[in-house]
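Question (not urgent): is this output format expected?
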Amino acid sequence: MQAPKEEKETNLKRAGQLISTITLLLVSLSGYANGLTTPGTLETALTQIESRDFPAALETIKQLDSRTDRLFYEAIAQHRSGDNNKAQATLSKLFAAEPGHVEGHYLLGMVHLALVEEVNIFKKISTAKKALGAWEKVTELDPSFTGGFYAVFSFYANAPGIAGGDIEQAKTYIPVIDKLDPVYGTLAKAVVLNKEENFSEAETLFKKAAGMTQAAGPQFALSQFYMQQENWMPALQAINRYEALDAFWWDPDISITHLIKARANAEMGNTDIARRHAERALELEPNGNIKGLLEELLEELG
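Got this back:
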């Protein structure tokens, strides 16, 4: 049996790994954010997805005029709800209608990455590599799309070596990303510095990236960095700024922000606040890993 301190450290490590995986995804569609509009029905559907009202979102999505839009946003709702096998099937229909749907292939990478947690141990590496393959396809379909290159970079930077992770390979993508979007070039440099345990310079670049844009994603990355450093108050401040900015469908939803607030407040001794955030997150019926971390935290809080 683990000692209480060791068990707590294990839970923190699991939370950090989970948030790291999420950060791998959240900034990857930044290249499409600037021109994105969400009129009428689509705006309603995205709001319902963000609030985790997936049955309502799926009904709203049926009203979209374009079949490819219906399939794409249906797959988003299925993925965000945790039904990744169904999302994969929906994306197959999307590609039958439009093989070069860039955002669809990006989403497919997200789906495969989520499925790594669901498949048996013998399929985990091959499933992870399918995520990489989907993102490499994105870079081929649209070489001007920052998100595809950042996702490939993030895979090499974050995946374990046995699954293909390679920090030196990750570094080769930084000049491309930096040229396409200096914000995410700066963020990529921060990720590498963090991996190399140059935490002071990593913090400087995470903060610089967050200050260069009104996109929400870099604020989440900054909060994640502080969580890994166990620097709880700055982590809370960054996640509060994240919530104040406009989020997109690829950004972590409110169940994740509640998890961060719950863990940080718990570590600072704010037990009642931590419990409220954890209980609120559980009411949103989060996916399995998030639910497990929240339940463990509530058990720790007593």
